[in-house]
Design a protein that fits this description.
The structure is a homotrimer of 324-residue chains. Chain A is mostly helical. Helix content of chain A is 74%, strand content 0%.
Chain lengths: 324, 324, 324
């Protein structure tokens, strides 16, 4: 590509494509993943009560993508365990993050500058994982774009996609939410990457692989750093998503009436609703009783627009807080 | 078989056996399956909140049998995605059923005459799927009747058998019920078909394959049409089931005492129970709080007879209404 | 090994290693497993409501290890069904245990002397299953100790490890507990066995296979008999576990403050808490309403010591009683 040559980026992209993930980038991935587990509500208690469940959860955070893509391709999901060095590294990091005396490792790694570097390095591994998944799927299913996307996505965002079952290991069960119902930023960006790499692999995208790797890696690293520094969690695709959503998934239809009704009903009940939930929270905090849950129909009363969707996300977050 | 020759059904059965499911019958299967999803409580809201979760659920409704039998035979569960044409067809139908302007497609397909034709065509695909499963199992496990039955059943009724996990995609979790605890009519008829085709395959059933295909197909199409027209959901096997149940699974036993006690206790608590649950429902509707659930022992106080079973099913339905 | 020769145990261990599990030991395994299922709360009701779900649950109790290790190695999880003789035996025993007239079979097998013999024989099959798993893993993943341990463990204790999903078949869902969070004695002893056999297989443990088989079998049989006779459920490893736990997973750390706070808070709220939960229980027993559940953070306020862990286990048991 001429632009790359003109900007002298050709060598850079070649250099990046030949970069080895092992050991430094892999270690950054393990550290950031296990710290993410530690920051889950209840994870610290589990680490005290059952180190084994905590270790297994950590391995799912670190190798979830390999496990999920293994299951999807009917390859042994225990395969990641056979790579002793990786498991040993991940286990040592798990031990240090959870049980290090004085909690030195976690406190150091949680410092913003170090966290920034580690998160950036972890994002770099994402490119390799997505590409690995797409290549693996390509070797089994020639020219099946959908399988390539699915496997690339599973490999890159496996930990998130299997989060319901990872939580189950820790005795937590939140059926009302999953990564398909409400995608997080890493899951979204991995899906975008899987689509791009699958298109590149089938030559629908007129870009060379190492160029795409450079562009994608820079984009995710920069974006992740921006999010960490500003503390914002707005997706860079919000505008595109909203446009696609409005074009494809709404429009005049009988549901407008249906959802309109529901929305109205919600607004009508709004005050009572909030008031009651405050009381409920107060009560449950007073008596320490287990919280009630909504197992079915987690989503109620959204009107068919993104705004309503966002509102519902806020409501859901509130619910989560109550539930946790 | 002489009877078939006498009735000039030999050619008809040969013609049926050579019928191609693609594209018309497959499309009918997709339409009816996705309409069944749309009629699930909460599905419309999910389709507005997360089109991706809705699409994934639809694919599980359409290809659930292939996914489940793939997992059971350690073949890649993503394989159905590699058949681009089928996935494209199913996705277009998913889009039209859920998001068509003016809701034209759903309204048309829901008209009784069209629905009757589509449901009939969908039932025809069941024969092919069960037979495909039995053949696939036979090629891997020669002469293992049980594996053939299991794979034939999984392939024909996969969507129902994995319904707990399909619901999880939509954020719904109903552990207290599944297709094994309380089989629906399609699951039952598919099991019967799987048994018949497995017996035919191992030559225990002295019938030719195309004759059995004709008989089974006619039976399920006629029965489905009858059920749609009369609105009844009584199984044609109710009498046989009841007889088998009474012969094999009851009789004088210490449990009679046990279950009798439970039943009595239930009757004693009946009035209070109902009264309270009405209050509970009222309260929960007032404050919009998440409902309570019974995760364990969904079945309480059945006496050891089919009558009690039916009553319990009613109770369960009531519970479901409360839970939803 | 000289000690074995001196004690004339060489021949005994050879004899044991050549012992065939089929049919007597396998049958003992089926009987004890299915009796364990029958003693689960709610299992008898399920056996009356849905014999099929009960049968499927029984098969998971009998062949859970083979199913789980099959999934982990990407081998067909239906494979156990292809062994018709075993399935037939297990099915006959399932029928006799659940539906035998006068409940003769269960009552006989539940008599202490017979139960003792059957449980001892079942424990013998554990050695063979663990060894089978380790060998199977070794043939696929040379020298990967972790995979050998995982597969040996899965094969020997599969029924327990998949208990959450086995329960789901019966309509029971208890996400707040699993065998990783709170290991039962059979799961622990199987893990120890898997570690030993994996070490022997990779020659880290200087013992011959048949000698290790003899030692391990005698240990688990004697221990099981002791537990049955004394009714105690204390693990023989409690002291070692506690030592390992105190050495590795505690120590001065910021959590001490955190968990201390939580513990204090718990103590402070103790009276109110208990009072409220009594009220809650009373209410729920009055109105027969489904109980509330703790889906998240099953473990609250443990201080970082085994004592606290044991206390929490008691609390959990109390919760279970309430939940059931």
């Amino acid at each position: 590509m001429d632009l790359f040559a003109a900007l002298h980026l050709d060598e850079l992209s070649h250099g990046l494509a030949n970069l080895s993930m092992f050991p430094y980038f892999d270690m950054a991935h393990y550290i950031v993943s296990i710290m993410a587990l530690r920051e889950q509500p209840g994870a610290l208690e589990v680490s005290r009560v059952s180190p084994l469940a905590c270790w297994f959860s950590s391995m799912l955070f670190c190798f979830g993508g390999a496990v999920l893509s293994g299951i999807m391709l009917a390859e042994p999901p225990v395969a990641p365990l056979s790579n002793s060095t990786s498991v040993l590294f991940a286990s040592i990091i798990w031990y240090l993050v959870f049980y290090c005396p004085m909690d030195l490792v976690y406190c150091c790694a949680a410092l913003l500058p170090l966290r920034l570097v580690l998160s950036g390095m972890k994002e770099v591994t994402r490119t390799w994982k997505v590409l690995g998944g797409v290549t693996q799927a390509h070797s089994k299913y020639k020219d099946s774009l959908l399988v390539m996307i699915a496997i690339g996505w599973a490999k890159g965002a496996g930990g998130g996609l299997i989060s319901n079952f990872e939580q189950l290991v820790r005795g937590v069960w939140k059926p009302e939410t999953n990564e398909l119902l409400k995608m997080s930023y890493p899951t979204k960006i991995t899906l975008v990457g899987a689509v791009l790499f699958a298109l590149q692999h089938t030559h629908y995208l007129p870009l060379q692989k190492h160029h795409l790797m450079l562009i994608y890696t820079v984009f995710i690293v920069v974006n992740k750093s921006r999010m960490l520094l500003t503390g914002s969690s707005t997706s860079p695709f919000a505008a595109i998503e909203s446009a696609i959503y409005k074009t494809l998934f709404t429009g005049y239809s009988p549901y407008a009436v249906l959802t309109g009704d529901v929305t109205k009903a919600c607004i009508d009940n709004g005050t009572t609703n909030t008031a009651t939930s405050i009381t409920a929270t107060k009560e449950s905090s007073e008596n320490g009783a287990p919280e009630k849950r909504t197992p079915v129909s987690p989503v109620k009363g959204q009107s068919g627009s993104l705004k309503a969707k966002e509102e519902s996300e806020n409501t859901e977050t509130t619910n989560c807080k109550k539930t946790n």
